[in-house]
Amino acid sequence: MSSEAKTAESYVEKPRTLAELRAEVAAGRTKATDMAASYYDRIAKVNPRLNVYLSLTKERALEQAERVDALAAKGDPLPALAGIPVGIKDVLVMRGAPATAGSKILQGYRPPYDATAVTRLEAAGAVLLGKLNCDEFAMGSSNENSAYGPVRNPVDPERVPGGSSGGSAAAVAANLAVATLGSDTGGSIRQPASFCGVVGVLPTWGRVSRYGLIAFASSLDRVGPFAGNVRDAATLLGVIAGHDPKDATSSAAPVEDYAAESDKPVEGLRIGVPAEYFGEGLDAEVRAAIERGIDSLKAAGCEVKAVSLPATRYAIPTYYLVATAEASANLARFDGVRYGYRSKASETLSAMYRHSRDEGFGAEVKRRILLGTYALSAGYYDAYYLKAQQVRRLLAEEYLRAFAEVDAIVTPTAPTAAFKLGEKTGDPLAMYLADIYTVTASLAGICGVTVPCGATQAGLPVGMQVLAAHLNEGTAFRVARAVEAAQS
């Protein structure tokens, strides 16, 4: 993407592949400690401009790198991610490291345990560099809602990186980590991956444990990886996926070798294209890039056919009822009592609750708490929340019918390329519509991958979203890999 970018200032630097870096560590040509140090040097130079990292975990990272170097020196077999520098979105907890979720209300909180996804990364040899900036409590589509300032897009620092996992996407695009973890509730991995020109993965709901993920909307939240290419993203998912006894909602289904699945040819696969994703509001340059991507799948031997998902037009209102209602319940625990920010205006218990929440939460989080509380209130539950759940079921059934006819569905990931900082902050509805192509898969619980699929004339990345049925991540990776191959 750096060769295509036409902006005056760009921080894009494509990371080397996992396989290349791991092979160098295994052969002794590169030390994991030296690799970690070089990434910290780059972070020191670039982070002040992009605001990607909120905190660094140098001591823990270097201890892990030393363990990897010791294994390599003895000639012992190395785990899958040996020495690979990885960043963690700040909604996932790491033992002893700050966990802010991008919010003032969690100021000073240092959890005493690791999220399961973090534990699995480290067990696979990954070197965890630090915690990445994000929209507050993962609520946002531009990463402008963080209490610690916006993240800037490495392709053009005057533009947003997408949200809410903007720091995770920008870190990979700027080579401030080889790979990262993010979370996706309504598009928070896929949309920033599209805006920053990297690969992002939405696993099937339940495929990756949510233990240690600071909750936004529990029936929608998912943990997933970002990487510079499809095969690396598939490798990351293979490491963090699988049943976890600490998360009763995690799936017990066996985990495929996603990297091997991504290597398989796509000839003969049936690819669905829904007309509902190519109508009013889709930028002409984005549409052209996606259509070229679809043509590349035809050239690779795929059968492309039209599918219909008419309930898509109800997706945004449905999502913003379900998600805000669950946020209202989940965020009730942040009250200034046990941890995090406590207002000094605390003469009484009720005053402490009121002032701590008013001062600790940002405007977008308070907006969603109010919307969700209203939707759950007496007299309105059936009209709003229950109706939204019924429509959600219709959306899921439409996908089930579509996947009976096709192996995967391809759409634009976002209706536009990255927009300018401040462009939509005054219009919440316009901001919400940035997720119009991603919230349907979130509501249906299916999986997907977004993969770079060209760029606009200004050099801004365009992403294609590849969706597949529940627990069918392997197919999504196969199709995404074919799209990726056509770009090279």
Task: Describe the protein in words.
The protein has about 500 residues and is of the alpha/beta class. The chain has a domain at about 20-270: Amidase signature (AS) enzymes (Alpha-Beta Complex). Helices cover about 40% and strands about 15% of the residues. An eleven-stranded mixed β-sheet has the order 1-3-2-4-6-5-10-11-9-7-8, sandwiched between helices. The termini are close together. The model is unreliable at about 1-5 (pLDDT under 50).
Ordered list of secondary-structure elements with their pairings:
Blueprint: H1 18-27, H2 32-50, E1 53-56, H3 58-74, E2 85-89, H4 116-123, E3 127-132, H5 166-173, E4 179-184, H6 190-196, E5 199-202, E6 222-227, H7 230-240, H8 258-262, E7 270-274, H9 284-299, E8 303-307, H10 315-330, H11 349-360, H12 363-376, H13 382-403, E9 408-412, H14 428-432, H15 439-444, E10 447-455, E11 461-468, H16 473-487
Parallel strand pairs: 2-3, 2-4, 7-8, 7-9
Antiparallel strand pairs: 1-3, 4-6, 5-6, 5-10, 9-11, 10-11
Helix pairs in contact: 2-3, 5-6, 9-16, 10-12, 10-13
Total helices: the number is 16
Uncertain runs: 1-7
Major sheet strand order:
1-3-2-4-6-5-10-11-9-7-8
Named at the architecture level, the CATH assignment of the domain at 18-269 is Alpha-Beta Complex
What is the average of the pLDDT values?
A: 96
Q: Which CATH class of the domain at 18-269 is shown?
A: Alpha Beta
| Biggest β-sheet strands, sense, barrel | 11 strands, mixed
Q: Assign the structural class, choosing from mainly alpha, mainly beta, alpha/beta, alpha+beta, or little secondary structure.
A: alpha/beta
Task: Give the strand content.
Answer: 5-15%
